Amino acid sequence: MVETKREKRIRQLAELLLGQEKVHLKDAAESLDVSEMTIRRDFNEPNTFVSLIGGYVVKKQVGSADLEYVINEQSTNHVKEKTKIGKEAAKLILDNQTVFFDNGTTVVHIIQAISDDISFTGVCFSLNVFMALKAKPNCHVILCGGGYDTKHNNFYPLGDSSEIDNIRFDSAFLSAAGIDPAHGLTCYSFNELPYKKKAISQSQNVVLAVDNSKFGVVKSAFICSLKSVDIIISDIDLPIEYLS
Fold first, then answer.
1. Which end of the chain offers a freer environment for a tag, N or C, measured as fewer CB atoms within 10 Å?
2. pLDDT in tens, the chain (244 residues)
3. 5-67: which CATH number, 1.10.260, 3.30.750, 1.10.10, 1.20.1630?
4. Architecture of the CATH domain 79-242
């Protein structure tokens, strides 16, 4: 059965909520590149996945695993900025590429902005990112396993070897909780580091997608120096100290 435009928008709204608890109607309209009135009309008929309540699009509690995995950290913050970053970063993904996707809501926005016509292999270690990739019709998904970090919804390797070892990436899209000229890229969890570091060393092109709130921030877990990053995509012009 051919998917209608309304059905596609409902699906895109459900995908958007894989990365956050709720989305304001205005931000949802901007993300889908339609008017707020169009989305309001879409809710005139019932659907299984999402609701419009008080000006926010929220997920329905349907017991579906596809809508269960959301991350708590800053889940409703900087949606407009992350949508802008996602659309820009998605332009770098081409047909038949193999791409590593880090964890975090910004990465989910990148995946949602990838054209459904593009065939690619997506490799990840995060459940919410896995669910976003699984929703892309022409994506072959590889989920790296191991131990499970219940706080961050990520997997981490239990030994020196893992699924990622024999994969070489066209691009690696990284997120970070902090970026600083002296201290580089940092994050909250040390469990995230093994897969991140291997992806950086095995990728032809390392892309950092980060909103303006992360600049000048330093967290405890060190990912890499700025010299390891080829491209930085943000919602603002990069400060001069990050350009060298």
1. N
2. 677 899 889 988 988 887 677 888 888 899 899 999 999 999 888 888 888 877 888 887 544 443 333 333 344 457 788 889 999 999 999 999 999 999 988 999 999 899 999 999 999 999 889 988 988 999 999 999 999 888 788 899 998 888 899 999 999 999 999 999 999 999 999 999 999 999 999 999 999 999 999 999 999 999 999 999 999 999 999 888 887 6
3. 1.10.10
4. 3-Layer(aba) Sandwich (3.40)
Rounded to whole angstroms, the Cα distance separating 233 from 211 reads 8
